[in-house]
Amino acid sequence: MRSKTILGAAGVMAALALWAGQAGAQAFPAEKAAQVRAAVAECTAAGARKDETAARPAITQATALLREWMQAEPRGVEPRVRLAAVRVRCEIPFTDMMGAGSLVGQANGLLEEALQIDSTHWEARFSLAMNHFHTPEFLGRTPDAIRHLETLLRQQGDAAQPHFAETYLYLGDLYRRTGRVDEATALWRRGAALFPADGRFAEKLGTGGGASASTPAARDSNRVVVMEAITVEGGTRMDDTRSAVALKRVDVLTTPGGTADVMQAFQTAPGATRASEGSDLYVRGGDPAEAPVFVDGARLFYPGRYETLNGATFGILDSQVLDAAYFSSGGFSARYGDALSGVLDVRTIGRPGTRTLALNANTVQLGTSLRLPMAPSVGAWASVRGTDAGLMLAMHGRADEFARAPAALEGMAGVVWEPRAGSEVKLTAMADEDALAREVDAYGYSGPFRSRGSNRLAALSGRTLLGEGRVALRGALSASRRQTRFRFGVLDRERTDRGATARVDADVSLAGGGRVSFGAEGAWMDNAQAGIVPSTDRLAPGSPADPLDRGEDARHVGGYVEAERALSPSLAVIAGMRADQLPGEDAWSADPRLALAYRAGGWTLRLGGGAFHQGRWRTKYRVPEAGSPAGTPTSARHLVLGAERGGEPSLKVEGYVKRYGDYVPDGDGPRIEAGRVAGVDAIVRWSEQRRLNGWITYSYLDGQVELADGRTAPSAVDVRHSLTGVARWSFRPSWELGSTLRVGSGKPFTAITGGGEDADGRVVPVYGAPNGARLPTYRRLDARVTRYVPMRAGVGVVYLETLNLLDTKNVAGYTYGAGFAERRPTLSYFSRRTLVLGLGLTF
User: Fold this and answer.
1) What whole-number percentage of the chain has pLDDT above 90?
2) Dihedrals φ, ψ of 86, to 5°?
3) Domain end: 221, 244, 275, which one?
4) For the chain, is the Cβ count within 10 Å smaller at the N or the C terminus?
5) Residue 491: which CATH number?
6) CA–CA separation, 190 vs 159, rounded Å?
7) Torsion 53-58-61-63 (CA) sign
8) Which element (helix H / strand E) includes 46?
């Protein structure tokens, strides 16, 4: 349920928390009880202003102390009431609807335990009534809210303690909500007589209920949460001068057409270029390899599933265990090295507070996830998904497109230990296997393209707070392995990548304000390659090919320091420096970075930039293409200028210039010497409307490369215009209709203008200007209808999703017939209308 509805009585409940009795306080030290109250007050205030950075340490501290309190006083009422308050007021603002349902269930269980111990405890019963009051009506909690408030009414009698007025006010609202108008009026009159100084009774009696929860507008506000869109960080803190996008699990699960895929969902964010239909993340004209993906501090070799020569179709990250994700598309922190265009940093969920089992199923996938508390300071979670597209393809008459339908089995698991408040140790593991065989007509050959991939990842991460929270330490150790195999015509290539990384980071808050961050990292990686690869861009059997049997290794050592300071109430600055010896490079690189933010009225202006380097080490395979510009950049310089305004709607616009340099040879086409990308990204977002919310992003991009022969050409990702619109409309209390529109200008490619003969008399392609042609404009409209279902442990969902609603035949590329005289389009994976029916249940 929506955090603002759950927090509707937060002010009253916060006051009551300070008023609550001290039953059994002798067994728990008074100084610790005071620490609890301070931590609850701090996380409540942070929750109200949506400041997760400030809330998390206070939540951890309060939870640990309250569990200790309950161990010291097994029948203590106050620790249960306060822990319930932490769940509702501190944690719900930073979770999604399903997570909120689970948290409310935990809070209600604690409050019911408290009432079993002391059935007359006013705050426990009132808090329980408020949780039921603010629960969406379709979940059927209104009778429970009435029952508890009527019990309080009898318990209070005619006493006139100020906080007793809340019982009359909210119970009257519930009476009106259920059509008992006369009873509501009588109750408010009684309350007005007992509390003559409280003007709220006169307001309700004078307006027939005002804008209370009894009115239609208020009933709408208590329905199922209208999901918030992807939120843009940096607008609330002056010490956060960089622009970024933060994503929560709910955004991934509810983005229409996103297929509950983290990578697909981020493609709707500003800065992402609509360069392909798959999961690869093209950031401001950069190749996907220029935007690394991290999971709990571990860097993935490649985050895609069902990889082809043109990229992956889906991502490998499981949204069921996603806690949050951070995406920056330019001018990012000095903390991240070996990256040129952007960074995606994903954090999995922490220690579970309650046991839950979730089941997710649709016409493509079956999955389950478990969250399991194991001890007061230890918990575990796990998620398993099996995918087989055979049924979906058969439903749409597409089975003949695949010699083997895409199939995968994947799992993630984690064990989390919180030894004390502000400290966490987490072990995360991931494993997956995927395979497909699709009928393809490309590179002079028609037949099944067979792909198989697997990933293994283990990461041990930890964090702790020292010096009363002034020092934060984080560390991570990880090992990973990725194996891929492609078979298509003469191509039969297998590659195995392995790696191990270690890093440590520290943040120190300075006494006079500001912060200093520093850290170091090291990584080792190697690969082994075997098989046969084509030596030309023709893959038909008998085409020229070379045997492949080699291996390489590389290392990365780097470190950084960064200082952050508010120079005035309206001006903040971050300055940092990185130094790295990057994979595949002998020399060290130095990357200075700077970001400024200035706040004027409701606007925040940002200026950022710096130098960025990335080693030449890459894992992606490319078929030799003599006509396409070739080369891998290892340096880039960014300059970003933006303006952002909060409110409703919120608006953010950024302009940027990026200069590429230090290209190293890669490929057979005209060699690239330098590159430039310039553009504008904008997002407008509505997130506070009762019924219709969403966002619109637009990106303009102009990318050019300079060739060694003096020519200039469009870059491979010169997609001039990208437009994405996402809308979600709640048209009934438990129904939602969502839609996503994606439009992108055609991607450049080098056309083949005909055929000629080489010295051996073989027919070879004749190429046009490098990247001188463009694919047709990409258009795709997706839609989803969702029904939310009440469940004891939270909220379930049933949905019907339509991908490519208008059945638009989008072109992914071209293939050529004999003699290169005929050109035929190759359609994208979702080039036909596709229906997906699914459900999600929580137990």
Assistant:
1) 42
2) -60, -45
3) 221
4) C
5) 2.40.170.20
6) 12
7) negative
8) helix 30-48
User: Does one domain contain both 667 and 569?
Assistant: yes
Let me know if residue 226 belongs to a domain.
no
Q: Which of 199, 221, 243 is the last residue of a domain?
A: 221
CB 430 within 8 A of CB 454: no
Total domains present in the chain: 2
State the amino acid at position 743 in one-letter form: V
Q: What is the mean pLDDT of residues 221-228?
A: 25
Whether residue 207 sits in one domain with residue 256: no
271 and 412 within one domain: yes
Enter the pTM of the model: 0.76
Quote the CA–CA distance of 186 and 191 in Å, as a whole number. Answer: 9
- C-alpha 629/C-alpha 775 separation (Å) is 17
Asked if the structure places residue 227 within a domain, the reply is: no
Amino acid in the structure at residue 47: G
User: Do 112 and 259 fall within a single domain?
Assistant: no
CA distance 719 to 679: 10
293 three-state secondary structure: strand
Q: What is the dihedral of CA 661, 667, 668, 673, to 10 degrees?
A: 0
Residues 557 and 691 in one domain: yes
The pLDDT, as a whole number, for residue 247 is 55
Q: Which two tokens stand for residue 631?
A: 């080369």
Tokens matching residue 134: 């603010």
The three state secondary structure string of 52-95 is HHHHHHHHHHHHHHHHHHHHHCCCCCHHHHHHHHHHHHHHHHHC
Joined tokens for residue 794 = 């939270």
Q: Is residue 48 part of a domain?
A: yes
How many residues are present in the chain?
Answer: 843
According to DSSP, the residues that pair with 304 across neighbouring strands are: 315
- CATH code of the domain containing 212: 1.25.40.10
* Residue burial 786-820, b: 16+ Cβ < 10 Å; e: rest: bbbebbebbbbbebebbbbbeebebbbebbbeeeb
Q: What is the pLDDT of residue 248?
A: 56
Whether residue 42 is found in the same domain as residue 82: yes
The whole-angstrom separation of Cα 373 and Cα 526 is 38
Q: For residues 535 and 545, what is the distance between their CA atoms, to the nearest angstrom? A: 5
What pLDDT, in 10s, does the model give residues 381-393?
Answer: 999 999 999 998 9
Which one, of 144, 138, 76, lies nearest residue 108 by Cα? 144
Which pLDDT value is given to residue 739?
A: 93
Q: What is the mean pLDDT of residues 626-655?
A: 91
How much is the pLDDT for 219? 28
DSSP characters over 321-339: GEEEEEEE-SS--TT--S-
Cα torsion angle, 539, 542, 546, 550, sign: positive
List the structure tokens of 256: 């229409």
Which residues partner with 244 through β-bridges? 233
Tell me the pLDDT band of 501, cut-offs 50, 70 and 90: very high
3-state DSSP helix/strand/coil percent for the chain, to nearest 5? 25, 45, 30
User: What span, in angstroms and rounded, lies between the C-alpha atoms of 376 and 390?
Assistant: 44
C-alpha neighbours within 13 Å on the C-beta side of residue 130: 30
Let me know if 74 is exposed, middle or buried by CB neighbors in 10 A (0-12, 13-18, 19+): exposed
pLDDT band for position 224 (cuts 50, 70, 90): very low
Q: How confident is the model at residue 137 (pLDDT cuts 50, 70, 90)?
A: low
Average pLDDT of the chain to the nearest whole number: 84
Q: Between 360 and 452, name the one with better pLDDT.
A: 452
Domain that holds residue 442: 232-842
Torsion of CA 745, 749, 752, 758, to 10 degrees: 180
Q: Would residue 118 count as lying in a domain?
A: yes
CB count, 10 Å around CB of 527?
18
Looking at the structure, do residues 242 and 195 belong to the same domain, yes or no?
A: no
CA 646 from centroid of its chain's CA atoms: 20
- Taking only the tens place, the pLDDT of each residue in 302-352 is 998 898 888 888 888 887 787 777 788 877 889 999 999 988 888 888 888
